[in-house]
Amino acid sequence: MKTQGAQRTTLMDQQVPVRTKLAAAWTSFMFLYIYVDYLHLYKPGVVDDILDGVVWEFDISQTFAASALASMAIPIMMILLSATLPAKATRVLNLIVAGLYIPYSVFNLAGESWYVFYGLGIVLEVLILAFVMRSAWAWPRTASASVVGAKAGGLVDRRAMAGD
Fold first, then answer.
1. How far is residue 138 CA from its own chain's centroid?
2. pTM for the whole thing?
3. Cα-flanking dihedrals φ and ψ of residue 58, to 5°?
4. Which residue in 27, 89, 117, 140 has the fewest CB atoms around it within 10 Å?
5. Separation CA 94–CA 76 (nearest Å)
């Protein structure tokens, strides 16, 4: 027996705009980036090194802190820029920045002993960056008026072309 109002419906699967995909991907990248850095603090000896003024092989200084901030600011800004720049600039910028951050992310594995932890973090970061590059590369294009006219069987308004 069917009850009233219990009709089966199909979920609508709307197309997600490329800008939204890119901003979401950069947001995901930043969450992962931050959590890998945060969970790194649980590695034995890390907090002691920080208290001694050393991070990895670098002395903690204003230059180090500014460099670390700049390193994080780039993907943070990509969230905003992916949503606000013109399409062509957004596409090019995402291809360049994601392409540069792949080797930058992989470099973080150098000299580390926790290969499973860092390896998983880096693999996930690289997958997100590959998604960014793929989404930017495959950005849909709109057809120009001449292409639309040609596809419509040559039916182009000649007055519009003549400037009338």
1. 14
2. 0.78
3. -105, 140
4. 140
5. 12
